[in-house]
Amino acid sequence: MEETPKPRTWSWLLLFTTSGTLICCAVPITLVSLGLGAVVASMASTAPWLVTLSLYKGWMFTVSGGLIALSAWAVYRPRRTCPADPDLAAACERADKWNRRFIWFSGAMWLVGFLAAFALPFLQFD
After folding, report:
1. 3-state DSSP assignment of residue 123
2. If you placed Cys at 36, which of 30, 31, 62, 87 could pair as Cys (CB 3.0 to 4.6 Å)?
3. How far apart are CA 33 and CA 37, in angstroms?
């Protein structure tokens, strides 16, 4: 008898890394752009590890983008099939549906963070 498939922990790792890119880079840059620099200073004094994360934002975006690409390949790869057993097939389909949602949501979060961290600083509002 086959075992029931276990939830994939990489889906949660994917969301954790992409939300990390938002917390370290996108939120502070957006707040400063809106004139809320004191909030960012308060965040940096309360959570000094945010400064360390922002120093390595290039690596953070590279690693999280790679994880998103790897998970997208794992879910959308050709010749990927679910088990023949009806119960396992239904569980597999539900897991695939949620994994696709995680990938799209994480990709959108990554894109927002990337634009805020790398494109927004170059825009000048006169």
Report:
1. coil
2. 31
3. 8
Residue spans of the domains in the chain: they are 9-77+86-122
Side chain identity, residue 108: A
Per run of 10 residues, the mean pLDDT along the chain (length 126 residues) is 52 68 74 83 86 84 85 82 84 84 84 82 68
* Residue 67 near residue 39 (C-beta atoms within 8 A): no
Count Cβ atoms within 10 A of the Cβ of residue 19 and give its class: 0-12 exposed, 13-18 middle, 19 or more buried. middle
Distance of CA 103 to the CA centre of its chain: 8
Q: Which amino acid, one-letter code, is at 52?
A: T
Q: Is the pTM of this model over 0.85?
A: no
